[in-house]
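User: what does the whole thing look like in 3D?
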Amino acid sequence: MNKIPAPTIEYGTLAPMLLVFGAAVLGVLVEAFAPRYLRKSIHVPLTLLSLAGAFVLVVVQTMTKGAPTAPAAMGAVAVDGPALFLWGVILVLAFVSVLLINDEGQFVASAAAVPGTAAEDEAEAEGRAHTEIYPLVLFAVGGMMLFPASNDLLVMFVALEVMSLPLYLLCGLARRRRLLSQEAAMKYFLLGAFSSAFFLYGTALVYGYAGSVDLAKISDALGTGGVLDPLLLAGLALLGVGLMFKVGAAPFQAWKPDVYQGAPTPITALMASGVLVAAVGAVLRVLWVGLGNLDWDWRPVMWGVAALTMIVGSVLAITQTEIKRMLAYSSIAHAGFLLIGVLATFDAAEQNADSLSAILFYLLVYGFTTVGAFAVVTMVREAGGEAGHLSRWAGLGKRSPMLAGVFAFFLLAFAGIPLTSGFFGKYAVFVAALRSGSESGDSMGAWMTGLVVVAVLASAIAAFFYVRVIVLMFFSEPLADGPTVASPSAGTAAVIALALLVTAVVGVYPQPILDIAHQAASGLFVR
Amino acid sequence: MTTEYLVLSGILFVIGALGVLIRRNAIVVFMCVELMLNACNLAFVTFARQWGNLDGQIIAFFVMVVAAAEVVVGLAIIVTIFRTRRSASVDDANLLKY
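Assistant: Here's the predicted 3D structure for the full assembly of 625 residues, as structure tokens:
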């Protein structure tokens, strides 16, 4: 009788992810067994230590063993150079987001109490709090780590859901403006579930074509197949819908402004940084490992998506009057710039490490600036919570020049002004795109140059609305009843300081980070 | 022999997708999403039969578990919004726009 061969799991390689998931499960147990008054004091160290520990494991693994050259867990999870880099970035961004989440007054006392009723007042008066937030964040972070590292489409689907389901809930837990928060949660949930159903049907059709959901086997099937099968094309289109939704690329960007505005700001910071990093990583892996043989077919489509995303993001941002909504449209525009980076990694010379390192670098600098900007947003408050409307920010530079100056610096980094990290991020991606277009024998060459022209125009439009906010803060009279600037807690101050440090230092001296990104990219994705 | 099942799965998926776009009640919209996931399951097991391997059937189990988790989260969100607004219509939730 044949024995079933036992699967092998490389626990050492997967340790950072397992640590985060393990801490999340422990957090659920704490929630079940620890008395209420102790929970937060257990959750905070548990969450922060597990994220820091996972980061240390990632660094140790990179320094000692280097990136593995074969996928782990029977080919289900690929922990390669780019994945380790993205894990490091996601873990640091999650750590600083948790510092923001720790702040008092961001989350509702009891989500089950109907807004505006006695039950809500009672929960507030009792000082109740939803400490479930911490394990939920850990599960989401675990999903974010698995998403760009998954080497087959089934694991990728599970990772997508593990990442998204906790975020749907977290979006609905804002303390102030609860109707907006609940509405954001519902919209995010319904649209997110809709898009993951598309992703899954795409997976089913690709499985029907290739006979496997393993990315390497899909790639082999594509390499041998002669004619294009309608089954395959439909499958790829549906997969693309699911992935582009998570990145927030046009025409699937509609959820982003609503969700970013309604969600509690620390959660928005986590979504705008961590989820975007994870989603772009997953897009890169699917296109690179799975669909590399078919790049002639999807590159024109991605070209259109990237151009549309940049234009929609930049143009619609001009009309916004709400600060978080404006940052959401800015995030859409940046998703477009990131997609240029994705396109640039494919050219006539096939896959090249230089372009991959450019996009990894861009993800890192953009993530930090975003968290910093949202941290500033949490500090500008008025009676009903954060001062969301842009008109309320008028004259902030005269009342608290420090804070307004820091925010202006982050906005300039978004715009990509020299001496900020955003400049080198954009520069690296644009140069990569131009270089990929200049390879001889590539018919997409002129198109890539055109895309960079569109990107530069979109950056110019985007610079307009960033500068408009700066002008509003520094060159208009402060309102008599203007918002107050809360004195930051130690955590928030640390987050802003770190974001400022990264944005400024990388803006002046980017070489060390570029070197790390290049080293991570040099191994390429394992198959 | 499997074409009929694939056509049925396609029809179910399209009914689900149209339902999400057309129906107003959040619960019904959500049920349509579940219908889409079930269409995926049917496609997976059909292709598993066609290829003669078990991958697709195992994936169907994963999808069922994920769908169950999604129900828990989704109903929690929809019930909360119903208690606040006394309505589960997705058209009523219109504070966030443009």
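In plain terms: Chain B touches chain A through 46 residues (CB under 8 Å). Chain B has a mean pLDDT of 92.
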